[in-house]
Design brief:
Layout lengths: L2 H5 L6 E3 L7 H17 L2 E5 L5 H15 L3 H5 L9 E3 L21 E6 L26 H26 L15 E9 L12 E4 L5 E6 L5 E4 L5 E3 L6 E6 L1 H6 L9 E3 L7 E9 L5 E2 L17 E2 H12 L1 H7 L1
Parallel strand pairs: 1-2
Antiparallel strand pairs: 2-10, 3-4, 4-5, 5-12, 6-11, 7-10, 7-12, 8-9, 8-11, 13-14
Helix pairs in contact: 2-5, 3-5, 7-8
Amino acid sequence: MNDAAAENPDRLPIVDLQNFAFDEAGADRIAAELDEIFRTIGFCYIANTGVAPELVDGIFEASRRFHAMPAEAKNAIAINEFHRGYMAPKTSVIVTSSVAKVTKPNNSESFMLMHEVAPDDPEWGKPLQGPNQWPADLPGFREAVTAYNGALETMSRRFTHLIARALGLDPAGLDSYFEKPTTYLRMLHYPSQPDAAPDEFGSAPHTDYGYITVLLQDGVGGLEVRRKDGNWLRATPVPGTFVVNVGDMLSRWTNGRWQSTPHRVKNVSSVDRYSVPFFFDPAMSNTIACLPTCIEPGESPRFEPVLYGDYVMERLNKNYQYRHAATG
């Protein structure tokens, strides 16, 4: 792949993770492939991840069942101060977007699950350290969501070993940052909007805040990724794959070597769209500073060290209506 093709692809590349954990040479090859992709487009599909197909089917079924519930049942678990629960349509505006001046709320609704925190944990009650919420009278929902969430966390930890290799580190070189990771599982429902105005989106142009995002999307489509030439590339669903992208925090960690790429969603189809992004981030207490392997000779870090917890709370406080009342 030449530089021009890498920067301006006709489609997102597919990376096959088959057996990478058992093949040293194969893991190095995949890591080198990821480094090239993340330097340029910042997005790819990943195949053969080890996530069981029945878990994928289960999370889609759970999402459809949840979003089919009456509004009053969903609002009974409206998102709490710990960022867990139901987000009604048009309650978030991505004002921190570095891509566009966003003034209209996202036309989507979602259920948000985060990492479990035990009431006797010393972190309990701190920002993003509180109880998850579950809908009543939805048999099997919690079990399906919990099983999928666990599989995605396991896969993300394995993928982090590839990321470490790609950045010139020992495969376990980033593990200490994810001993108690901050995770978000968001079950999104995008209604059909074929006649939407140019500035109306299911998810307005933005970059993700954190480390990596692992996205499961149905067959409807609607995700678009901005290439370096400014044109938007359709991330057409590929059966049996996930979409993975670099977030702002990982881009900072690599001194900008890897790209946190703008993306957006508009469901112009005639049917509803469902997707399930899983965000895998460091612990709230971790300070993120440029990795030594990502500084070229004579180069200085482009970003000051930042506490992940401070960084993410600033963005949540600005982008979500429910937090405006809490923060004044």
